[in-house]
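batch_manifest entry 22 of 60
target: GMC oxidoreductase
source organism: Bradyrhizobium cajani
requested by: lab member K.T.
priority: normal
notes from requester: please return tokens only, no post-processing; we will run our own comparison against the previous entry in this batch. if the run fails, retry once and flag.
--- input ---
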Amino acid sequence: MLTTFANAGELGACDVCVVGAGPVGIALALACEQRGLSVLLLESGREEQDAFAASLTAGHRTDELRHAATDIAICRGLGGTSRWWGGRCVPLDDVDFARRPHAASTIWPIPHHEISCWYDAAAHFFGIGPARFTTAPAAQALGDIRTDQLERWTPDIDAGRRHRTHLANSRLITVVMGATVTELLLSEDGRRVVALVVGDANRTCRIAPRRTVLACGGLETTRLLLWAQQKRPGLFGGGSGPLGRFYMGHASGKIADIVLADPTSVSAYDFFMDDGAYARRRFTLAPEAQLRERLFNVAFWLDNPPFHQAAHRNGVLSLVWMALAVPPIGRRLVAEAIRIIHLGPRPYRWLSHLRNVMMSPLATLRTIASIVQARLLTKPRRPGFLIRSFEGRYALHFLAEQTPLRESRVTLSDRKDALGVPFLDIDLRYSEADARSVMRAHEILDQALRSAGYGRLEYRVPPEARLASILQQAKDGFHQIGTTRMGLTPDDSVVDGNCRVHGIENLYVSSSSVFASSSQANPTFAAVALALRLAAHLAQHVRAGEIGVAA
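--- output ---
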């Protein structure tokens, strides 16, 4: 059932209360329903954009060059930030769970197979076909470089839209929109959540769920826990404890072009259809090489030159840039965060882009028409496009693991939102070790390409400037990882291997914020897999309680 806080009346008892109706919260609710559990799914936003809900998410960034603004990184509403994401689904890797001497602070308390066994169910949730993330290698004899790993793309990015009909017709799930959880009320001994304070602009109420799962995104989940800690300073290890620390995302950017010896081989690295969903190969670093070289995880893919750099002299890229630069048009084409990245720094070079378009206007318009057809008029939509280069030259995009630092953290601000909850102060930090790992991974890829006669890298910056270039491009805020990390003890983690908050028997977290490491993967797919695992655990917990067995 779908309703709003204003119309909901008294919120009844439920087996599980899930806070947040993004992809993780929706997946968790549906999986609990499959196991016969009743679910109250509380969502701060609504089906349409809600200005009041959006105003509750402001945060101060210590370094605005490192972290995206919260108004483009966090979306309140049915479907959450899946309304804005690109749809890329990527699993974690076995090496992320290995004991890595050079990454001692990235230890998970569970093995990878505890999550990967849920990848098929997560793939079904996203509609990406089977959870098939490997294929035939695109190139042989590349040594430490793999070309057999895939990313898959959901055909419908908005999880709320995709699952709305099911949620509306469910007898076990009650979705309440416009319902913002503002406080967790704990028992005297602090070992149970006895009530949640829920409100909107007009009223507040208390509800008393048996079990609560915070699934409102990495930062907002952490914010609620920090607010509880401020009222009870001993919670979660106190101010020096792990809550809010180890904040991670990914290092991402471009420092080199890849030049393929055979320009026709590019087709192996473009988007292709696989069982009803788009997929794409990536270059990745073999786990043996990561361990031998003491490197962090990383993936590469072929990309177009940056749209905003008119020096590419490509009419198609310039016309796309011009469309994105007109806000009413650009915001209909891509999410605002992606639009801002593609626009690049000011001043904008409109005349240079116009010259590029006018060099071959008919060919440009023909290509644009095919892109519009694939992106906007065809189902499933094509996730992106790769303009062919006759010389086999493409930008090489990297997405790399960020190491967890205690000093990379979020804390509560002195400022509060309209419902009285403190905003966040956000201090996301990268390390030189992150950048050096990316540099070395590029060198290994270049050596492998040259040795096999497959191609080469050509760097955009000289050797002495590469470290600085990687750190200059390092920015996230969308992949909110690590701030409620999973671990064995409350000394170094916030939740245990079952995502239960240490010391609080009926409070759980379902979010990428529980990840102990960031891997090379966008976190949403694995976060949903973890949510499905949690649903199975909760069902077992409920059944054990019904027959009087300790769970």
